[in-house]
Amino acid sequence: MIITTLAVASVALCVARLLLFAALHAVPSPYNAVEHAVSDYAVGPTRRLSAAMTTVTAASWLTLAGAAYGRLDGWPERTQIVVLLVILAAIFVALPFAPTDVEGQPVTPIGRLHYVLAIAWFAISYSLTGDLSQWMNDAVGGPLAATGRVLHWVALGSLIALIVALIAPKLRRRYFGTAERVFLVAISTFFLIAAIALAVA
């Protein structure tokens, strides 16, 4: 019962994250989806909405970790999955204390720490899509597993595009923001699907 409750809570939190993500781009702000990173929204007039999204996301990782611990009993990668989900929760607890340097502003030590945390959560969240896709394929199957596999590849493609745009100055301003948002939506939707799978497995 508690496993299902945690999974359902994670579903609700994942939906809330996606809604807050959409709201972040709907409210008036000096940022735009093409030229600015999502983390820029944590600075300035959208900081409270961004902080709410960060808090909800941290809670979603924790509830997902709890559900995975119970539901993946006997699965070889269970410990790794749970530990990585807890690490993701810790990263999101830390993010508000390490705001980014807004595009065009000088780089600061706190800004560098933010980049390290962002790289870590992008890498960890993507790595988890592989193990959880395999679990969904073996334990759940059907549309949930198929959707998880598609989102895994969408996340990979957008992550590669994001990295290319990040290291190529001529591409960064035109493509980084879009690639990042595709990655974030794919990742957020993937973990929503994973939470649903944990609830119904």
From TrEMBL:
Q: Keywords, A to Z?
A: Membrane, Signal, Transmembrane, Transmembrane helix
Q: What are the TM regions of this chain, as residue ranges?
A: 50-69, 81-98, 110-129, 150-169, 181-200
Q: Which residues form the signal peptide?
A: 1-33
Q: Which InterPro entries match?
A: DUF998 (IPR009339)
Report whether RNA-binding shows up as a keyword of the record.
no
- What's the protein name? DUF998 domain-containing protein
Organism the protein comes from: Gordonia sp. MP11Mi
